[in-house]
Specification:
Blueprint lengths: L3 H12 L7 E2 L5 E2 L3 H14 L1 E6 L5 E7 L3 H11 L14 H22 L10
Antiparallel strand pairs: 1-2, 3-4
Length: about 130
């Protein structure tokens, strides 16, 4: 199995490749975008909401729906722009931040309990 460093390298390499779909601008020029750029555009599209067209088998538009903005994508963009790390949940279902807070709280509680009860078990015996 590849290491996470190798995975990141592959993601960066593949993300820099040209996306299969080519966009044509108003003047008829082809615009090639990277996969990274196309992914970023999809994230923005979901964050802002968009109109989706539903077509019949002949390609005629039957219905237009407005897909509501996704608050999770909005938060994702804000956090990325502020340089924050995404909240990743581990196997326990806790985010890394919550896990650190829980461990810190447990450590402080242990120290407080030792101070109150006079637990000197960690001291070195002078003999």
């Amino acid at each position: 199995m590849a290491s996470s460093k190798q995975l990141v390298e592959w993601l960066e390499r593949i993300g820099a490749e040209t996306h299969d779909d080519v966009t044509i601008d108003d003047e008829g020029n082809f615009i090639a975008r990277t996969r990274d750029e196309e992914l970023a555009r999809l994230i923005w599209k979901q964050a802002l909401g968009y109109t989706r067209e539903i077509c019949d088998e002949h390609g005629a538009v039957i219905k237009k729906d407005f897909v509501r903005p996704d608050p999770k994508m909005q938060q994702f963009i804000i956090e990325r722009r502020e340089g924050k790390c995404p909240a990743v949940e581990g196997a326990s279902g806790m985010s890394a931040t919550d896990k650190i807070l829980e461990q810190t709280k447990e450590s402080l509680n242990d120290l407080a309990e030792q101070a109150v009860h006079g637990d000197n078990s960690e001291q070195i015996d002078p003999e």
